[in-house]
Amino acid sequence: MAFFKRAAQQPSQKPPAPAPSAPDRAGRGDLHHLALEGRLDEMRSGIQRGEDIDLADKAGFTPLHFAAQQKQLEAVRLLLAAGADPDLRNKHGNGPLWTAVFAASTADDGVVRLLLAAGADPDHENLAGETPRGLARKMGYELPLLSGRSTTAPPAAEPERPAAFDGETAQLLYDRMMKDVVSPALRELCFTGSGGRFELKRDSETWRSLGFQKSTYSDRDGVRFTLNLSTISKAVWQEQSATRALPAKPSPSTFYGSWARQARITSVLPNWTDSEKWWRIIPGQDLDAVSGDLLANIRDHALPWLQEGP
Of the residues 101, 116, 151, which one is the last residue of a structural domain? Predict the structure, then answer.
């Protein structure tokens, strides 16, 4: 009986708290992947167990970069509230604000405004001499004046430009993704073609095409692209060719009129609330996330739409 009394008086031993995750081969911890997908509850758990909120991967991207890249507004808010630095730069000299500006389409973007309010510098130049403010102007809008950081302070010394920077442009990454990942995957889905235009095989009566359209604002520091879809009867095409100048076959990225069944990927996505669906590539970005989302949308939404056509 005395034994049970002594045991009851001993304090209970709590199990040790889980240790922070070890970075993967790309140098990314759990928070990188969770922030990319906006998994807030798991992010909170990771922060509580001591995950490094400012951990930079091998390309210098932090969880805040990833959250900003994917427009994960609440993930950005959570990281900033936990003390994430809004101005850490990757190896290209880009902070989360630059990434957010590239992902945004208007000056009212919530992620951009959050980062500016947190003190992110809109006038810091990256290694290519580009600033978030200048990038916004290229994309057709002005950044709001929310930053608490003085723009009259002397600029920070420019970091040494990596020797490999010139070979890692966004355009090269886009071309590599299309050649090595997207084209082979589309062939498995019974598409034929290359570059920016693909057609479904085995249809002698209808052209069923998808086309990749890059934004006019794309350059070496960022590529934005979307998908156009088209199903046009070959008989109808021949009839229209008799009365107007048309090429030998239709292009999915050219609008021909109400007689042609055409759409942008945005219009076939369920519950899509943004103005347009665009994918974005920047130097040093994880192409697996971009190509995975792109191919999932083609398989699950674009392909069924093309197969339903006339």
Answer: 151
Q: DSSP state, 265?
A: G
Under DSSP, the state recorded for 177 is H
pLDDT digits (tens, 9 = 90+) for 149-188: 433 333 333 333 333 334 578 888 999 899 999 999 999 9
Instruction: Determine, yes or no, domain membership for 4.
Output: no
The structural domain count of the chain equals 2
Q: Is the pTM of this model over 0.70?
A: no
Mention every residue, 6+ apart, whose C-beta is less than 8 A from residue 122.
97, 116, 131, 132, 133, 143, 147, 149, 151
Strand pairing category for 223-233 and 191-194: unpaired
Other CB atoms within a 10 A radius of the CB of residue 143 amount to 23
The whole-angstrom separation of Cα 186 and Cα 206 is 18
Q: Which domain holds residue 124?
A: 24-151
| Dihedrals phi, psi of 203, to nearest 5 degrees | -135, 105
Q: How many CB atoms lie under 10 A from the CB of residue 241? A: 12
Residues 178 and 303 in one domain: yes
Please check whether residues 220 and 175 belong to one and the same domain.
Answer: yes
For 22-89, the DSSP string reads: PP-TTS--HHHHHHHHT-HHHHHHHHHTT--TT---TTS--HHHHHHHTT-HHHHHHHHHTT--TT--
pLDDT, tens digit, 9 for 90 and up, residues 48-96:
888 899 999 898 999 999 999 888 999 999 998 888 999 999 988 899 9
* Whether residue 146 sits in one domain with residue 186: no
CATH code of 116's domain: 1.25.40.20
Domain boundary among 151, 182, 208: 151
At 233, is the secondary structure helix, strand, or coil?
Answer: strand
